[in-house]
Amino acid sequence: MHRHRIFALLLLAPLLSAYSLRAQLPDPLSRPSADTNPLTNPNMSPGVQFLYQLEAKFAADTAKGGGKSFATWFAPDAVTLSNGKAPVTGHDAIADGTTWLPQDYQLTWTPEGARMGPSGDMGFTWGHYEGRAKDRDGSIHTTTGRYMTIWKKQPDGQWKVILDASNDGPPATGDCCKLP
């Protein structure tokens, strides 16, 4: 009987530890309120504010300079993941695939949330993106979806993207898949 209790405790210990850890982690799907004051919005830590500012600079540079500017934000060992495409690894490979001009394609995005790691040298953001491209006839085609960007402080102190992942949104028919 004593062996059965020990065996049961050995089985339950990892489950209880995982449950306890899960209760301590922030909910990655929670959205910060529109209130950006860290004193009234507990989700808006200085680290999250910093990541939002970083995203704003990244987006502004991309809007002005197109794909060339977009690529400058990636670390040498960065990875991009997109729907139906192979991963692209390394800054140079990413730059080779981001050659669009801002007058031909506009990529915009809005972060909905962010988290800074406990050591303050890595964090991530997520939100919605929109891409608008002109075809040869001048017609505009729009794609939308969700993205996640993982940021890492580099040895020289700059912050660079180490992972950019996106997935296309559902067709514009209905609102079956929108988050509340």
DSSP strand (E) fraction? 25-35%
Mean pLDDT: 81
Which structural class matches the secondary elements?
A: alpha+beta
Strand order of the largest sheet: 2-1-6-5-4-3
Number of strands: 6
Radius of gyration: 21 Å
Distance between the termini: 51 Å
What ranges have pLDDT less than 50 throughout 5 or more consecutive residues? 4-34
Map the helices and strands.
Blueprint: H1 2-24, H2 46-71, E1 74-81, E2 88-89, H3 91-96, E3 105-116, E4 122-134, E5 140-153, E6 159-168
Parallel strand pairs: 1-6
Antiparallel strand pairs: 1-2, 3-4, 4-5, 5-6
What would your notes on this structure say?
This protein has a domain at 45-168: Nuclear Transport Factor 2, Chain: A. By secondary structure, the protein is an alpha+beta fold. 17% of the residues are buried. The longest helix is centred in the first third of the chain and has 26 residues, at 46-71. The chain has helices at residues 2-24, 46-71, 91-96, and strands spanning 74-81, 88-89, 105-116, 122-134, 140-153, 159-168. Helices cover 31% and strands 33% of the residues. It is built from three helices and six strands.
Keywords:
180 residues; alpha+beta; Nuclear Transport Factor 2, Chain: A; six-stranded mixed beta sheet; 3 helices
Task: Write a brief caption for the model.
By secondary structure, the chain is of the alpha+beta class. The chain has helices at 2-24, 46-71, 91-96; strands spanning 74-81, 88-89, 105-116, 122-134, 140-153, 159-168. Strands 2-1-6-5-4-3 form a six-stranded mixed β-sheet.
